[in-house]
Amino acid sequence: MRDMLQPGTVLRRRYRIEAAIGQGGMGSVYLAEDLRLEGRKCAVKAVRIDPNIEPDLIAELQHQFSREASILARLDHPNLPKVSDYFSEDDLDYIVMDYVSGKNLKELMDEARRNGQFLPEAEVLSWARQLCDALEYMHSQDPPVLHRDIKPSNIKLTPSGLIKLVDFGLVKLLSKDMAQTITVLQGRGTAAYTPLEQYGEDDSHTDTRSDIYALGATLYHLLTNTPPADARQRFLNPAALAPPRQHNPAISESVERALIAAIAMHPDDRPSSIAEFRDMLFSTEVLLRPTNTKKPSKPSLHDVLYENRAWFIVAGIAVLAGLIVSLVG
């Protein structure tokens, strides 16, 4: 986004910009200090609406921004950053939320790949459980709240081990030219996580199953170090999607089935809810899977004698008692 805010800029006489921490076609995210609450760091997301569109549409989009920000501000879940403020200033709209420290999952995945490794399935599933809890909470709101931009770089792991789903996809329509918006999505690298229905002229066909697709694609990427073929590629060539175990044979078969179901092209072929998808991920097959795959070493005779010493003592006493009885008799 052009006209980046410079460090030291103060917004609304309260938020002093310290540094840019994220940038994309739809806006930028900054680390800021809250001047009213000493020591509090926050993340400020700036969204610019295309100034070339009709004034009536600008007003409509700003109303939509205000409405969605208000909904997000009411959300209260441990795996979601708390939204504390939103406002408009000049030709930018801002939303203020908790700053989440730690690395995002893309950074952790990239580190594993550079080391020639995959992220452990058990660890990814522990993150998935938290993400499912957050999405189930969001989808249970009235109306349901959709994230619309789930991907590894939008998920942070805090130093305490808590997962935070950040950077909500506010303001779905930035201009009438949806082709431009789709180009923005591609440019930000989110195409691999975007379901086909989200590429339409409007979002009337998106629902909670669109988030399920994005979550499934995200977990696919985290477990394989390879993003799944995007929906448009698969529309033209269904064989473009490689099964996850083809990239990483250590993935459980049941997890693979859950991921393939989540990223089905048609929403009706996906799990109907986050709860259903979670049940597929955490099936009995996965829960009973041994965590230590090393073949146990054969115990030595000393180990056998030591571990069963109590039984040998009892047996010895019994034999001795039998001998005594036989001699006395």
Give your account of this protein's structure.
The chain has 329 residues and is α+β, with helices and mostly antiparallel strands. The protein folds into three domains: 1-99, 2-Layer Sandwich (Phosphorylase Kinase, domain 1), CATH 3.30.200; 102-296, Transferase(Phosphotransferase), domain 1; 299-329. Helices cover 41% and strands 15% of the residues. It is built from twelve helices and nine strands. The strands form two sheets. Strands 1-2-3-4-6-5 form a six-stranded antiparallel β-sheet, covered by helices on one side. A three-stranded antiparallel β-sheet has the order 7-8-9. α3 packs antiparallel against α5 (208-224), α3 (121-139) runs antiparallel to α9 (274-281) and α5 (208-224) crosses α8. The chain is globular and about 55 Å long. It starts with 9 loop residues before the first strand and ends with a helix. Residues 170-189 and 285-299 have low confidence and may be disordered.
Strand and helix layout:
Blueprint: E1 10-11, E2 15-24, E3 27-34, E4 41-48, H1 55-73, E5 83-89, E6 92-98, E7 103-104, H2 105-114, H3 121-139, E8 155-157, E9 163-165, H4 178-187, H5 208-224, H6 231-236, H7 244-247, H8 253-262, H9 274-281, H10 284-287, H11 301-307, H12 309-328
Antiparallel strand pairs: 1-2, 2-3, 3-4, 4-6, 5-6, 7-8, 8-9
Helix pairs in contact: 3-5, 3-9, 5-8
